[in-house]
Amino acid sequence: MMIMKLFTALDLPAALIAAGTLASASNPPAPRNAPSAANNQHLPSTSHGPNYNSTPHFSFEELFQLQKKFLDNFVFPENQVQAKSVNSSLLAPNVQGRVDITRTFTGQELNTEYLFGLFANIATVPNEFTLLGIPLAYEITHFAASQNIASASTRFNFSFPILNNLIVPIEIETWNVFDSNYQISQQPQRPKT
Ligand SMILES: *[C@@H]1O[C@H](CO)[C@@H](O)[C@H](O)[C@H]1NC(C)=O
Ligand SMILES: *[C@@H]1O[C@H](CO)[C@@H](O)[C@H](O)[C@H]1NC(C)=O
């Protein structure tokens, strides 16, 4: 089975999550490279409107439902709705996404495109040459949650237009931090030292 890692709002080293540290930790492990103050410069003022700064404490069930809501919108055709919105309301305005250990991108627009647009566009332009598949259905196989972090392994059925719509199961690991507005955020996890 192919394994693809899809980390969103990732502050902790991927290796820690891959090793399953999150599942047993009551507090998230300390990030090796703690986010610098510069990362917080774009956080909006909290004098009015939604609160982006406090760390909420969700129940396990709440985090599972938030995770499911994300996954429901990741699969076709709901991902098209998110992609068309340009700035998905599932994501915080300053959401930080991560493609791999070194590359991050900030903001609803870029992250909406990456999370939802990437696969939604394939379905709308089926004849375009692409190696990517369309996520059709999913099943969560492992789930861990702590405070406002949800970590899930999910088995998706992807359809590959280039292979006559062959259905291929692909396991995707997601790691999401949620803010007090129930949006996926880049809210850094401050280690308690
Ligand atoms: C999406 O968000 C960006 C950045 O805030 C903004 O410039 C753009 O107009 C928004 N687009 C839509 C369609 O809401
Ligand atoms: C994925 O496809 C397989 C084979 O078609 C099917 O048995 C399975 O139930 C599907 N999984 C989901 C989550 O729909």
From TrEMBL:
Keyword Signal appears in the UniProt entry: yes
Signal sequence interval, chain numbering: 1-25
Entry superkingdom: Eukaryota
Keyword Signal appears in the UniProt entry: yes
Comp. bias (Polar residues): 41-51
Keyword annotations from UniProtKB, A to Z: Signal
Biased composition (Low complexity): 25-40
Region (Disordered): 25-51
The protein's name in its UniProt record: Apolipoprotein B
